Structures are given as C-alpha cells and as structure tokens.
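To: structure desk
From: M.T.
Subject: fold request, one chain
Message: Could you run this one when you get a chance? Sequence is below, nothing fancy, just the single chain.
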Amino acid sequence: MDSIISDSYAVHFNENAFQTLNNHLSEKKYSTIFILVDENTHELCLPNFMAEINGDYQFEIIEIESGEINKNIETCVGVWEALSELGADRKSILINLGGGVLTDMGGFIASTFKRGIDFINVPTTLLSMVDASVGGKTGIDLGALKNQIGVINQPVMVLVVPDFLDTLENRQVVSGFAEMLKHGLIQDTTYWEALKEAKGLKDMKRHILTSIQIKNKVVLQDPTEQNIRKILNYGHTLGHAIESYFLESDSKEMLLHGEAIAIGMILEGYLSNKLLGLSDESLTDIKTTFLNRYDKVKFSNEDIENILKLMKYDKKNSHGKVNFVLLKSIGNPEYDIEIPVELFTEAFAYYKV
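Reply: Done. Structure tokens follow.
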C-alpha cells in the first residue's frame, strides 16, 4: 500500500511519498518553501530529503532546538519572526521535518501564521510516524504541562519514509514503539501479540503501516475527539502527568514520551483490572511486556503525590473530573471512566512490585 487516506489528506509512503510531494510542489507553485528542522534532522535527514526534490524552488531552512523542553510559545515566536523576516506570505508552505515535538509545533505555527498557511509533515521518528502523522493535532506545552495550547488542523499531506529511522538512537526507537503497543491494546489482540514478537527496528518498520491504519480508522470516526477518539489516550492520563513531572524536575532525568506512556499503560491496566474486569492474566501480560522493554522507574511517595496533582491539567478532563480510558479486555476499551482516589496509590504499588 502506497497511501492511507485520512479526513482531508493522505499519508504517503516511501517512493510514493517523494513522487507525490514533487507533483504537489509543481502544481501549487508556492511563493516560498520553508523547511522547519532541529539540529539533528538538519544534519541527518535534510540532505537526503532535499536530494529527492525535483525542480527549481526557493527554499528557506529554519532550525529550532530539539526536545520537549523547547516545545513552547517562545520557540513559536522565534519561528513566526523568522517567517516574517524571510518574507513568508499566505502562499508560502511550511514543511516540518522532524519528530513529534517538531511536527506538533510546526503544525501549530503554520496554522496560526497569517491565520493559516499550508504545511506538510515529514515525521522522522517512530513515535511521530505512528502517532503524530494522523489526526491533525497541533500544539505546544504550557510550562511543563503537555499540549495545553493548540488546534486541530490538517496538513496538506504526511510523508512517511521509514529509512529516516536509521538515524535514531535505540532509546528513541523503543520510545516510539510504546505507541504501537498501545494500538494493539486498544484495538487488536492479534496485532498486540505480533508486536510482542518484534525484535528490533527491522521488525518494527514492518508494523508501521498497521499502526497508522488503526489510528486513522479511529480518527475518521471522531475527528475532534468528542467520543471514540478518546481511546487513543490509553496510558496517557497518568503517562502525561509522569512525563510532565520528570520534565520539570531538576533532580530527575527526563523521560521520553513513550517511556512515560509505558508506565501509564501498566498503571491504567491495573485500574482496568480493578474497575472493568480486565483479567489478571491480561494485566500480567501488559506489565511483563512493557517491563521487558522499558526500565522500571522509581517513584517516592512525594513523586506520586506530585504526579497526581498534575493530572488535573489533563486535556480530557471536564467539569473538574479526571477521565480515563480503561480496558475491559485487550482490544476492548472504554472511555470517560472516573477513578476512586485510593486506587491510584494501589496502581503505583502494583507497578513497583
């Protein structure tokens, strides 16, 4: 399969990705083509990307600093100013070449510059390919609080070129794999079982298409996350709070998104077992699968207390209530579940054992 059709755009793969891009640029005749990169994708991905573009176009490269810590309004202001100084107009386009931080933020920057210019996402990490590539969510963090500012706005297209993954360190690859495992847990038992057998990047590459198809199927049913799209947040309510806590802590090493979400999926698996009847066998399967791939993180009682305070800022909350996605069984989720407070401490105790 060369493409997956989403709501108003398509995700294109491999050779078809560059062919489609070249056709689009030739047809649209943009006034200026801006490419947003970070220091890593500037060095490791941009030369190969540029080599695939045919035609004589005016390109401007804008570089930002990598990392979740830079996914903020200050970075956006810097890019908006660069766009303005370099003469961007409403007939310009922004191509976002990078991981999920860069495509989230680049989409937001394009969506708000001059009330919106075209943008194309070219994800270069496993996480951004299987997660940020579909759904149109753009945004930035508010301090350490994840994705508090943003809009849902669709790119012109998304280009998925798995060869870019060869530039990543293994920790980044494993982080992205957590989102793929989530897709199995919320939608497809067979896929979950297949992913458990994946040994390395080569095996993971083979499953990228399936993960994107699963996410796209959910998003098409509920583009603005009013109901079923919420299931994509399994593991993220506690996971995002954990990620935010480690991001703002001066004494702790920052966790990557997938590492925090992996912990969240174990914790929310425990909650599923207690509240929705997820079987003991499935709960053990979830915990074992994640701990086989992700190092166990130590949490003090103070850590847990602060993490639970951060949960109140989760985007899925409403009317002062923290809402969770839980599993009745693997592949069978429910959303908008309220949790008795005492179970959170029990969930962390289960994770620690």
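Reply (cont.): The chain has a mean pLDDT of 94. Let me know if you need anything else for the meeting.
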